[in-house]
Specification:
Length: about 160
């Protein structure tokens, strides 16, 4: 469980990182930065800060902020409602990201991108300086993500 103070701090750090990269957020967007700890209460190691610009039945666009060494755990986006599942393209804006897709490792730096096919196991980790990644995808249904680690929950639990 994360405390309100931990979530507030992570939002502020993410907003500052985005501003430093020249990515402007509105005040509303700053307040809506999602802080995902995947139910492990270990945000520094396993977590992600997310700004969702749009998420419709057809498209989704997000900014993903990863603090130094932070990992988004292995998961896949399964088929749903007659779709093949979420297809996503990650484009690194700042920093370095080690992306593991279907048993292969791809290291991405600024301006580089990689597309992950639907229903494909993948995970990624930021380098020592953290990273900002733009994600462009088909519809995002985070509630349907399937994680390899059974302890993982997509929703962050707020503690006292």
């Amino acid at each position: 469980m994360l405390t309100e103070a931990e979530i507030r701090d992570a939002r502020e750090r993410a907003a500052a990182a985005l501003a430093e990269a020249g990515i402007v957020l509105t005040e509303d967007e700053r307040g809506l930065i999602e802080v995902a700890d995947f139910g492990l209460s270990s945000l520094a190691e396993t977590g992600l800060q997310i700004v969702v610009y749009v998420n419709t039945e057809r498209v989704c666009a997000k900014e993903l902020v990863l603090f130094p060494g932070q990992t988004c755990p292995e998961h896949r986006h399964p088929p749903f409602d007659g779709t093949p599942g979420k297809e996503e393209t990650f484009r690194v804006r700042r920093g370095r990201v080690e992306l593991h897709v279907g048993g292969e490792t791809v290291v991405l730096g600024p301006g580089e991108q990689h597309t992950v096919p639907p229903d494909t196991l993948h995970w990624f980790r930021a380098g020592d300086g953290g990273a900002i990644v733009s994600e462009f995808s088909t519809q995002s249904r985070d509630d349907l993500d399937v994680f390899t680690d059974p302890r993982i929950s997509r929703a962050t639990v707020l503690g006292e």
